[in-house]
Structure formats: C-alpha cells, structure tokens
Amino acid sequence: LFREIKEDQAASEAREKATQSAREALLRLRQGLAASYGSSWTQTLGLEGTLPEDAIEILQHTERLKARLQSKGFAWPAPLDPDLPAWTQDIFQTQLDRVTSTLQGHTETLVRENKETQQARIHRNERMEETQRVLVALNSFMETIARLNKQTEIANRIRPSGRRPSASDPHDDNDTPTNNDTPINNDTPINND
Hints:
Largest sheet: none
Number of strands: 0
Order of helices and strands: HHHHH
Number of helices: 5
Shape: rod-shaped
C-alpha cells in the first residue's frame, strides 16, 4: 500500500508538470496564431480568454479545438502579413496533438495508479478483517482453555474482543465466556473418554 501511495504521488506530480507544460504550450500557440492571423482568429478557434488550468479541462478544451478544426465549412485563413510564417490546419492539429499527448499519458497513468492504490487498500482491509477474525477466534479458544483449567484470572485477561477487563465493568469478574456460545460450567467434570 505504501508503495502504491508513493507511486500515486509521483504520478500526480508528473501530471501537474505536464498540465503546466500543456497550458504554457497553448498560450504560446495562441500568441503565435494571434501574431500571424489576429486575435479575431484566436477567438474563432476558441483560444481567447482564460485557458483552463486543470488537466481534464485542458484535454477537453483541446478536443473542442480539434472538433472545430474538423467541422464542415471550416477554412484556414491567409496570414495578415505574408512575410510571417504561415500555419496550416495540419500544422496546428499536430501542435495540439503534441500538447495533449504527454498530458493524456500522465492522466491515464494517474488514473491507473489511483485504481491500484484503491485495490491495495481493499486488499489490506480484507486481510486486516481476516486477521481480526482469527485473533478473536484464537482469543476465544484460549479463554475457554483457561476457564477449563480454572484459571479465571487469565481467562478474564484473554477476551475475544482483545480488550482487558476494566475496573468499572461489573461483568468482567464473572467466569462466563464473552462470546455467545453456551457458557462453560467450571463445576462439571470433563469426561475425556
């Protein structure tokens, strides 16, 4: 479990770095497009305004951009200044893919690591419950053996719940087992035939 938690932390940190990197790349793309085609074109594409900061929102935003590029009737304009480098729709699509591919990979890794950690926690809890059942059964068995040997003081210390009797609990001084089985009568002789 500790290894899984550590892997979760590493995956989370890697995704945070990839998120920051993707956001910075989108900002650079917006600046480049605005320089070549004007701010009205970046608005048309959906790159104006505040860009998302969350990894999932960045991925969703870039998917909307890609869908807009593939929409019917979409045409890439000519640059405002013919001396500036011209972009094409394919170049922009490639840049978007480059921006999101690393972020998508880190997001998938984080989701996988979170699932593995959750499974490790479930497994640990199952093992702990199983161990607790075994310990309660063992304590009950040991308490019964102690009572059969008329070792009341030891039997009172061995409780299936794992707790010791308290001074304020009046039931802790009796000789009956603490489980719901039939009480053992210490006065009845045991027939070992």
